[in-house]
Amino acid sequence: MMLQYFKGLESGLQNAIQKGQASPRKLYSLEIARLGTRLYSGQDKVAWCGITAPFDVLNAMGMTSCFVEFIGAMLASTGVVGSFIDETDQIGYSSDSCSYHRAVTGATMKGLMPVPELLIGTTSPCSGGLAVLENIASHFNKQLFVLHIPQDESISNIQFLANQIREMVNFIRHITGISLDMDRLRLAVEHTNKTRELMVAVYDFAKQVPSPTTNKELSNFGIVMALFLGTEAAVHIAKSYYDEFEKRVKSNSGKSNEKIRLMWIQNRIQFKHPLESLLADEYKACIVVDELNDITWEPIDPNTIFEDIARRSISIPFNGTIQNRVKHLQKLAQEYKIDGAINPCNWGCRQGTGARGLIEDGLKEIGVPVLNLEVDCIDSRKFTEGQLKTRIEAFIEMIDARK
Amino acid sequence: MYYLGIDIGSLSCDAVIIDKHENILAASVVPTGAKNKESIARVTDDVLRSAGISKSDIHGIISTGYGRDRVEDRLGAVTEITCHARGIKALIPNTKLLIDIGGQDSKSILLGQDGKVIDFAMNDKCAAGTGRFLEAMARALQVDIDDMANLDTGANGTLTISSMCTVFAESEVVSLIANATPVNEIVRGLNRSIASRTVSLMKRIAPDPLGMVVAMSGGVARNSGVVRAIGDLLGSKVFVPDSPDTVGALGAALIAKEKSNGRR
Ligand code: SF4
To answer: Which end of chain A has the least Cβ crowding within 10 Å, N or C?
Structure first.
């Protein structure tokens, strides 16, 4: 089922691109479809991972790697997630735990997850993700290597994680027989650095007023691009966004009627829903930045690859104290000149629970109002459109009245 | 020149007509039936009849409430949060904090000097503590919902209803009845449970509400027992306008006037 889905998606996108309908988002989606096809092809060596795994190292080793939450999001976007989520009731998942994890666990139980060669867990951003990997490892009787991500960027922490990444490389060699070719790694790092540079420029364009981006174009971008780091495809996608945004900024064809600039906190809602269109069409409100669309790390130095990759993993905004996260959100809010922020507060989020009030206070401190929604970003059956619409509309009316 | 505000809530459909001096000409409340359109037509006919005017005399309509998109010939649709804020400002001008408890939502709204919304919070996923909650409890107690306001008279107020979920609270009430707990104590317990949820919602946007002028709108504001319980918990008086159910519709009518005059 999933292989057909990804193949269909891939050929549909390829056709559209060949017919001259290429857009940055289509190229990005095509790469997602290709990854999906590879994951489900039965040919590739698959590694199921945590969100902060070093994907450029894994790509350089020829592993087809993906964080498991990606499958939760894909199942949500195809609209078939409900039965997978329900499946997990039987193995003790509480009904209000994170649906990303329930969906993936359900898919594993129903035989919909490709058999991995191995698993690379990460202790950040949430313990729920690691638990899923442990479940999958025991289900398939495969080995799991866990990267313990320290909470802050001290020299000893960076060394600690860099050594673990080296151990991870040995672990993969031990299981697959594949050694890490240092030339391939250096090439991957070149691609990573190029992608990074282009993404920084893309985000800089998005900061402009009016922003060249639209509500959907950069949705999930930062987190998914991490999967493609180290590949030429990532450079290609980032370059396409760069070219398109540069063109829009130069020709001033961005939305000149952009009235309200918004920041989206944490992840987007992954199934089809009318809220983003409502914001754009009714209120000329644009989500110009997502919390995870930021480059928080320096280019990787070819002489200290493992240390710099370790530093990158530690630097993601979800890692460390909530205070760090708040500071990062304040920085984004100021750089992007936003009028308000929306926090979906994904149901049962292990990482977001407790942060909500502090984030709200931190942003209010700099004059940015926050709307807290109560959404299950994966399970569309819990989507209460009327209630959410009222909150969003009232929030926009409130911002509008302040202007 | 007349302006019409219509508020289509989950339990009732409310309408208010004002004139160009913002005087209320007529107000009407009808239950929201299964078919929104019919309820809208009914409340419109009713309020026009009471005002003694015809639809062609209306210069602008603003709709609000969860069914706001279903009103035809409207100038626009505005959320109940903005409308209640606008309406209460006209009725109790120095309101700083407004509680609006309707059929399935409860909201707290912080108002600026100019009556504009500064912040708001809405109940989370479930409808506990709203009009529907009270309806279910009245059913369990086998009393008329309109009589609940005074049924807590004489209660010593030591009983707490621990369940917040409507379904669990209903069974808790049923077992209290079975244990011969006096009705006034149960009703007081229910009022206190609604009050505690409401005050938490208020504190989300106004951590220190003492000293603020607090008002309440929405159908549940007619229940003086609930209003008293909120006031007791807050330690201050809660002001309720004469027709709390039509505050949203009044706000909508006032916005209709402003929009018609091109001021908004
Ligand atoms: S939403 Fe929260 S609990 Fe779920 S995967 Fe993301 S961080 Fe983890």
So the answer is: C
User: Is 50 exceeded by the pLDDT of residue B264?
Assistant: no
Instruction: Confirm or reject: Cβ of A69 under 6 Å from ligand 1.
Output: yes
Quick check: is A108 in a domain? Answer: yes
Half-sphere exposure of A397 (CA within 13 A, CB side): 24
Which residue is listed with tokens 């609940």? B148
CB of residue A346 inside a 6 A radius of ligand 1 = yes
Nearest residue in chain A measured CA to CA from B64: A390
Mapping DSSP to helix (H, G, I), strand (E, B) and coil, where does residue A237 land? helix
CB contact under 8 A, B122 and A397: no
The residue range of the domain holding A98 is: 2-177
The domain that holds A74 is classified in CATH as: 3.40.50.11890
Percentage with pLDDT > 70 across chain B: 97
A vs B: CB pairs below 8 A: 37
Q: Where are the domains of chain B?
A: 2-86+245-262, 94-240
Shortest CA distance from B10: residue in chain A: A386
pLDDT means over runs of 10, chain A (403 residues): 91 92 93 96 96 96 96 90 87 85 93 95 90 95 97 95 98 97 97 98 96 94 97 98 95 75 95 94 95 96 98 91 94 98 90 84 96 92 88 95 84
pLDDT at residue B138 in the model? 85
Q: How much is the pTM?
A: 0.89
* DSSP-derived secondary structure for A60-98: HTT-EEEETHHHHHHHHHHT-HHHHHHHGGGGT--TTS-
Residue A255: partners with Cβ closer than 8 Å, 6 or more residues away? A210, A211, A214, A284, A286
Domain tally, chain A: 1
Q: Is residue A110 part of a domain?
A: yes
Q: Which of A369, A390, A394 comes nearest B66 by C-beta?
A: A390
Residues 6+ apart with CB under 8 A from B22: B90, B254, B257
Q: Is A50 in the pocket of ligand 1 (CB under 6 A)?
A: no
B101 bridge partner residues: B106
Q: pLDDT tens digits for B96-137?
A: 999 999 877 889 999 998 889 999 998 766 666 787 888 888
Give tens-digit pLDDT for A12-55.
Answer: 999 999 988 889 999 999 999 999 999 999 999 999 999 999 99
Residue A173, in any domain of the structure: yes
According to CATH, the topology of domain B2-86+245-262 is Nucleotidyltransferase; domain 5 (3.30.420)
ipTM over 0.90: no
Of A391, A397, A401, the CB nearest to B122: A391
Contacts of B74 in chain A (CB under 8 A): none
CATH topology of domain B94-240: Nucleotidyltransferase; domain 5 (3.30.420)
Task: Give the pLDDT of residue B123.
Answer: 79
Is A384 close to B80, i.e. CB distance below 8 A?
no
Which chain A residues contact residue B120 at CB under 8 A? 394, 398
Residue A397, in any domain of the structure: no
